[in-house]
Amino acid sequence: MKHSSDFVLALLTILCGFVVFGKGVFLKFTNLECESFDKSLTSFDKCRLKALGRHNVSLNIYIKFNPSLYPMNNIKINAQFHQRGSFGPYIYNDTMSFCEFMKNPKRWMFWKIIWEAILPATNMNHSCPVNHDVIIKDLSLKEDMMTMIPFPPNTYQIRLRFFNSTLPGFECRMHLTVY
């Protein structure tokens, strides 16, 4: 009798693991915040989420740059990944050169996975210098994205701050829910 209850418990654990980390996982953007620290350098024409269905929300961002004032070949990114209710970064807090990241994204594997999810929805498919506006259009999260990064159900925040050594930049905070 003890063995059958252990078997049932093991089976339930496996099934719950499949629901949490398998095909039963839903990903959804829940909030988006964009902030320009100097409006004469960068501005957001669009920064919003669009509901496409109950479990499907797309992200749209349009960033206008003033390239004569903002040197786009020396950009740094501070990328953070937080969990709701956490005071510090949950998993990642990296500062990197955007140009180096675009040349060799394998050096930052976690952010490479995130970037590959964003890349089909953006016009940023080249390395530096960036001499045009940046558009992210209709970026939706898919459940197969969780196969590479299996996080437990919760609300998370990806915070990307772009800047250089002399000028302030801008920040995007994307909140997403895994359930």
UniProtKB/TrEMBL annotation:
Pfam families in the record: DUF1091
Record gene name: 106094752
The family database entries (PANTHER family) matched by this protein are listed as:
DAEDALUS ON 3-RELATED, DAEDALUS ON 3-RELATED-RELATED
Q: Which InterPro entries match?
A: DUF1091
Q: What is this protein called?
A: MD-2-related lipid-recognition domain-containing protein
Superkingdom, taxonomy of origin: Eukaryota
